[in-house]
Amino acid sequence: MERKKWRGQFDFIMSALSYVIGLGNLWRFPIMCYRNGGGTFLICFLVITLVAGFPLLYLECCLGQYGSVSVVSVWKVVPLFQGIGWTMLVCSWSLAIYYNMLIAYAVFYIATVVTEEEPWKTCGHWWNTASGITQMGNLRTEMALCLFCCWVLIFICLCKGIDSSGKAAYITATVPYAIMVAIFTRVIPLEGSADGVLYLITPKWELMVQPKVWCDAAVQVFYSMSICSGGIITLASYNRLGNNCLRDAIIIAVADCLTSILCGVVIFAILGHMANNMKVSIDAVLSRGAGLVYVVYPAAIADLSMATTWVVIFMSLIITLGIGTMVRTQ
User: Fold this and answer.
1) What are the boundaries of each domain within the chain?
2) What distance in Å separates the CA atoms of residue 241 and residue 237, rounded to the nearest whole number?
């Protein structure tokens, strides 16, 4: 039976953008920049994207489009490599297990912030202090409900195959940009934001010769562009044979790089403002907790006027990015 095709010309591009642009851009990229010399890592990231990321992305687009089969079946062209397809499938399954939990956290934060006091402003609840790894603790019913709602939302997006997921992609691929631009225009004028952006773009040239920086940049490129995870091959398999996959690959690669940079600017502007308020360095801000997205950023935004609105907007960004990736992963 002939494989179903995308209805519109831009369905694949929107779906692919929704897939590759996710929490890796918003969360992991700024952390990697901080750990590897800011501008130094940015240069390495762009170089590896050009010499490795884009060619592999283009190769996967071609493989999926001209194979027009699933990520497992496409590797039958080289029987020796059929295990690659199954490995990609396992990677996607593994991603789906934990990725939806991150979305559920954001849903929980929105539900909490509109019904009661923001959870990051106080430390008076018993579950804020762990008893230890030997005690599992009680079931958090509200978190389980949030997780269930996330799975229901993903089911709705996938219930009619690429017809419904293609339409959902226009939302999950465009809304995050609108939110990021809104947050960008709000945080850039803040005091100390320029210091944060300067911290991001200033290279430490002595780190350019460190293999670890280049390795981290390569990992980030593969993680950010979702290369070798099977998603791009699957999405491209629904393209028509005459589709210009080179154009699509260029658009996806450029959009991913620009999105990572935009996220980095927004995040470091927030951190710069937070460091200015706390009278400490940005290094001290980043070392104050592991919950970077769910603790540090909301705490910084909480100092703004209309803080509740901005926290809801920020968490909505996490939800749309996560849902977009999850829908395409399935």
Assistant:
1) 11-121+138-329
2) 9
113-133 pLDDT, tens per residue? 777 666 556 655 555 555 666
Nearest to 107 by CA among 315, 325, 327, 326: 315
Say whether 321 counts as a known binding-site residue.
yes
- In single-letter form, the type of residue at position 277 comes to N
| 243 is known to lie in a ligand binding site | no
pLDDT in tens, 51-61: 999 999 999 99
Strand partners, 159: none
Place of tokens 């990992």: 219
Using CA atoms in the order 220, 231, 84, 251, what is the torsion angle rounded to 10 degrees? -60
Owner of token pair 């991603």: 95
Give the pLDDT score at 290: 42
The number of C-alpha atoms within 13 Å of 290 and in the hemisphere containing its C-beta is 0
Enumerate residues 6+ apart whose C-beta is below 8 A from 311: 109, 113, 118, 298, 301, 302
Question: Rounded to an integer, what distance in angstroms lies between the CA atom of residue 327 and that of residue 323?
Answer: 6
Q: Are 311 and 115 in contact (CB under 8 A)?
A: no
Distance CA(86)–CA(292), nearest Å, equals 33
- φ, ψ for residue 203, nearest 5 deg: -80, 150
Q: How confident is the model at residue 138 (pLDDT cuts 50, 70, 90)?
A: confident
Q: Is 63 annotated as a binding residue?
A: no
Please report which confidence band the pLDDT of residue 298 belongs to, taking 50, 70 and 90 as the band edges: low
